[in-house]
Amino acid sequence: MSQATMTVIPKTMKAAVLTELKSPLIVAEITMPAQLEIGQVLVKIHFSGICGSQLGEIDGAKGEDKYLPHLLGHEASGTVTAIGPGVRHVRPGDRVVLHWRKGPGIEAEPPVYHWEGKRVNAGWVTTFNEYAVVSENRVTAIPADSNLEVAALFGCAVTTGFGVVQNNAKVQIGESVVVFGAGGIGLSIVQAASLVSAYPIIAVDMFDNKLQLATQMGATHIINSRNGDARQMILDITGNAGVDVFIDNTGQPAIIEMGYQITKPQGRVTLVGVPRKGSNINIYSLPLHFGKGLSGSHGGEANPQTDIPRYLGLFRNGKLPLTPLITDTYSLDEINTAVSDMRSGKIAGRCMISFDASAS
């Protein structure tokens, strides 16, 4: 008998469903698949972060959504309850981080759920649900005694933020860094820049609560872009020579263009935020031929198999204070409130959806 059939898969579970773009999520009981297919892993979710990417999905930032209705979420912690045929990297009982970047193992067929007689789509990982059927290559095992609320951050915020600094921008000791947009990923970028001894580290945002948290994460200077000309305020700090590294988390063309203009001739611009479909940037490209860099980041090019254990080790040994990054916790029934609070700037850091508070 396979391990998949030894554990009973719940017939239904509660999940947040995106049924229509620019509309609230519907929290409903949906029907689970009857069995696990090759490479699939059944995980009980404990904590899920909400990333700005999900706000973009809800808003249709990339254009038409052909998969409605579908589930959401790509950053969580959980416990494996069953595995499908062929799974070798995790086993039932393992504590795991769920992530959207590919790790080792099988990339399985995405699961299909049902609700009110309709098919509900899901990708290789979703996390706004009590249980998740995910691909083996979207889960990484962690020590059983891990702090599961903090562990959820390794699904995206921390691994992306640190990867941006290490793999994309390749920040060097003493280089100046501007982080434009201080959400969950932006704050992780600030923290990573601090760990590599960048200076100055300038966090820019529209909300003072986010900027105050950025100083806890390692920002040496903060700028509220509502209070004046952000470009000039940055140059007042760095000098007119400009910035070594400019990292944009907003996806707004005007900010990207400004960052490109104020970086040094050998400086680098890294784009983490993705412009909405149809929004293009205008740049004078000649500096690209003489050493200036402009590149996009895909999750910081993180490798979950190696990066999650490294960063988790830093946290467990007191070298990476991540607890302050989690500023708000909601239940699944409150998910639309959480989304609204993210949009309004009420949430300073990363907010968590808690499915099992006792798991922490």
UniProtKB/TrEMBL annotation:
UniProt-listed Gene3D superfamilies: Medium-chain alcohol dehydrogenases, catalytic domain (3.90.180.10), NAD(P)-binding Rossmann-like Domain (3.40.50.720)
Cofactor names: Zn(2+)
Signal sequence extent: none
Molecular-function GO terms, alphabetical: oxidoreductase activity, acting on the CH-OH group of donors, NAD or NADP as acceptor; zinc ion binding
Record's keyword annotation contains Oxidoreductase: yes
A Pfam cross-reference name: ADH_zinc_N
Enoyl reductase (ER) domain residues: 19-353
UniProt xrefs under PROSITE patterns: ADH_ZINC
Protein name: Alcohol dehydrogenase superfamily, zinc-containing:Alcohol dehydrogenase, zinc-containing
Species of the source: Chlorobium ferrooxidans DSM 13031
Phylogenetic lineage: Bacteria, Pseudomonadati, Chlorobiota, Chlorobiia, Chlorobiales
